[in-house]
Specification:
The complex is a heterodimer of chains A (385) and B (318). Chain A has 385 residues and is an alpha+beta fold. In chain A, the strands form three sheets. Chain A has a three-stranded antiparallel β-sheet. Chain A has a three-stranded antiparallel β-sheet with strand order 6-7-8. A two-stranded antiparallel ribbon of chain A has the order 4-5. Chain A folds into two domains: 43 residues, no CATH class; 240 residues, Cytochrome-c3 Hydrogenase, chain B. Chain B has one domain. The longest helix of chain B is centred in the first third of the chain and has 32 residues. Chain B starts with a helix and ends with a helix. Classes of the chains: A alpha+beta (385), B mainly alpha (318). The interface between A and B is medium-sized, with 38 and 32 residues.
């Protein structure tokens, strides 16, 4: 790996600081992240993230499956926004093989992706509450209310796609499920319900003085550091750089949709919180715009797939990126013309965003560690792949 | 003598039963606050046997002592927590002239025993030989001991107003007006006491000792089975003792309209205070240790001192 092994004994012997293994079994490391913290009292002196506990070899697996079999595999990477993963993959294959996607199919993909972005941000808000408030306090209360709203979205996605979570909606060449009038009306009702719940969620989080005290000025990412490390997504926009793949390199239907890119300049955990809350609103108006402007026509441009191994992609190299709820999720695909990818590299937003932790944690307290991690919203499935 | 034994036995039994059902109540209230139902299936209706099931489960669980732990302190910690929390009940007057130990200095005694439980927590955190537990023990030294000061200052106010350090004397002095109803002085003291009690009782937003999301379970991270149950019971007994003390010194304790016995009034008042604590606990997030310390030294302590001076002036003048 090239990273020197960091063991607790070495830290304590060599540096004379208390080494604290935070994770991989820890309630606030969002899965199996391990942080080796060097503590002086409760102040963090150094922090080393140690990752790989959820490595499943997805990139290698890509070299062994046919093109049409792969999209569902990637949905397991970033398991809070499955659609974004398969969407990036489908875009890459479509660009390389010059497959056209019907306009309605492009709208439908964006529709599901936006609903999942809202669901993902709700999970983030709930778990940030857990990080700041603990399981035995007000944090759980916020968490439960966030999950109540998310549950409605998952129920809706189940009605639309048959699956609550790994919707498997994206296919190379289009979209698997279509929206009928009843489901479209449901989407409108759901958008109204989630929007009505937002002030309540905000009252439990951003409006409380304790939440503000815990997040304001904590984990400040200066814009140059954000660019140097390669931070993307809401975390980058919280640092004042309004970069959004949907806006700057539009894919699917985003070129035709009214998209607002919220950003803040403070760069602290509170700014990232505000950006994500505004993104929920932006996504709500996006799904409304999609339902209102959904064009007629087919959603899938290819013939029904009987034998997935028959699909061949011409030789070449392509990079396609989407804006996942965590940032720029890119897939770099190399094809040699066969039925399987020669190599596929995933640019995971959580992985890149997590690199900033090493610069943010020193100087803070142990309590800030969980606040900062929570505000970065890493998904370990996305980090380790 | 026999009467005192009998009374202490009754008080202990009732207190432990209340403690067991406080866990059930807390789970129910938290569930309602969170749009859930809470325990439901163990015992119809509404899972009323859940505390019994919890206790049975914890008793039959394996009792683990880490090899590297300091055995004596490790085993002493939970016992100290429970015993000191329960000892406090001895000084609570249950009716006029009825208390297990009606001592002229019962208020300081109560506080001394309540502080002993912190020693138990510290012993647990120190002896576990676990870094999270150690951090928790360090937090205890920095934080909870400093919250003791404004708490004691807040409790001095009723003592000053009543002119006695005996709890039954303080209750009797409230025949005319509860101390919580004294304009400014009484309310400030009550508020200060409640804030400090949150820190002492390890409740959110000042539950920095346990700090589940930072220090996992902190001082009791290495405990399992019956020893963990003792911690759990000790925490609730401590909360109950605190609520009962607040009811006694600020809300007239056993005083209340005649046909209902005084004990019932005391339990009712304590229950209302416990519900208030639950409400706070399940709505607010945790503050950071530096913020908690700043709140204590820069806000609570000066306000408490000024309040004591005000109360002293009031009682001298009046």
């Amino acid at each position: 790996m090239g990273v020197p092994p960091v063991t607790v004994e070495v830290v304590e012997r060599e540096f004379g600081e208390l080494a604290l293994n935070m994770g991989p079994q820890h309630p606030s490391t969002h899965g199996v992240l391990r942080l080796v913290l060097h503590l002086s009292g409760e102040t963090v002196v150094r922090a080393k993230p140690s990752i790989g506990y959820l490595h499943r070899g997805v990139e290698k697996l890509s070299e062994h499956l046919a093109y049409d079999q792969l999209a569902p595999v990637y949905e397991r990477n970033d398991y809070l926004s499955p659609t974004a993963n398969s969407l990036a993959y489908c875009l890459a294959v479509e660009r390389l093989a010059s497959i056209e996607v019907p306009r309605r199919g492009r709208f439908m993909r964006a529709f599901v992706a936006e609903w999942q972005r809202i669901a993902s941000h709700l999970v983030w808000l709930g778990t940030l509450g857990l990080d700041l408030g603990g399981a035995l306090g007000g944090g759980t209360t916020l968490y439960m209310y966030c999950f109540r709203e998310r549950e409605k979205i998952l129920d809706f996605l189940e009605a639309l796609t048959g699956t609550r979570f790994h919707t498997n909606v994206n296919m190379i060449g289009g979209c698997r499920y279509d929206l009928d009038a009843a489901t479209a009306a449901w989407s409108e009702r759901l958008a109204a319900a989630v929007e009505a719940a937002l002030p309540e969620l905000h009252a439990m989080s951003g409006d409380t003085p304790i939440f503000r005290e815990r997040t304001r000025g904590v984990g400040v990412i200066p814009p140059d550091l954000a660019l140097a490390v390669g931070v993307t997504g809401p975390t980058l926009r919280g640092s004042g750089i309004a970069h959004d793949v949907r806006k700057d390199a539009p894919y699917d239907a985003y070129g035709e949709l009214p998209l607002s890119v919220p950003s803040r300049s403070a760069g602290d955990a509170e700014a990232r919180f505000q950006v994500r809350i505004e993104e929920i609103r932006a996504s709500l108006s996006l799904v409304r715009a999609i339902v209102a402007g959904l064009p007629a026509g087919p959603i899938f441009s290819r013939k029904p797939i009987k034998n997935p191994k028959a699909t061949k992609v011409p030789a070449g190299e392509v990079y396609a990126a989407v804006e996942s709820p965590r940032g720029e999720l890119g897939m770099h695909l190399v094809s040699e013309g066969g039925p399987k990818p020669y190599r596929l590299k995933i640019r995971a937003p959580s992985f890149c965003n997590l690199q900033v932790v090493e610069y943010l944690l020193p100087g803070g307290l142990v309590a800030d560690v969980v606040a900062i991690l929570g505000s970065l919203d890493p998904v370990m499935g996305d980090v380790d792949r | 003598m026999i009467g005192a034994f009998l009374l202490s036995g009754i008080v202990l039994g009732v207190a432990m039963t209340i403690v067991a059902y406080m866990t059930w109540l807390e789970r129910k209230v938290a569930a309602r606050l969170q749009n859930r139902i809470g325990p439901y299936h163990v015992g119809v209706p509404h899972g009323w046997l859940q505390p019994l099931a919890d206790v049975l489960k914890l008793i039959v669980k394996e009792d683990i002592t880490p090899r590297a732990a300091d055995r004596l302190l490790f085993n002493l910690g939970p016992v100290l927590v429970v015993v000191s929390a329960l000892l406090g009940f001895a000084f609570i007057p249950l009716a006029r002239g009825v208390a297990v130990a009606d001592h002229p200095y019962s208020l300081p005694f109560f506080l001394a025993f309540a502080s002993l439980s912190l020693l138990g927590v510290f012993a647990a955190g120190w002896s576990s030989n676990n870094k999270y537990a150690l951090l928790s023990a360090l937090r205890l030294v920095a934080l909870v001991t400093s919250y003791e000061i404004p708490m004691i200052l807040a409790l001095l106010v009723p003592a000053l107003l009543a002119g006695t350090l005996s709890l039954s004397g303080i209750v009797e002095a409230q025949r005319g007006l509860w101390f919580a109803a004294y304009p400014l002085i009484g309310q400030l003291a009550l508020l200060l006491f409640l804030i400090c009690a949150l820190a002492e009782g390890n409740k959110s937003p000042l539950d920095l000792l346990e700090a589940e999301s930072e220090l996992i379970a902190a001082y009791n991270v290495e405990y399992s089975g019956i020893k963990f149950a003792l911690f759990y019971a000790g925490e609730y007994a401590h909360t109950l003792a605190t609520c009962t003390l607040a009811a006694t010194v600020f809300f007239g304790g056993y005083l209340g309209p005649a046909p209902v016995p005084g004990v019932v009034w005391l339990v009712l008042k304590s229950a209302v205070l416990f519900l208030a604590v639950l409400w706070i606990r399940w709505s607010l997030m945790r503050v950071r240790i530096d913020q908690a310390l700043r709140l204590n030294w820069l806000v609570l302590l000066p306000v408490a001192l000024a309040n004591v001076l005000l109360a002293a002036w009031w009682s001298v003048r009046g």
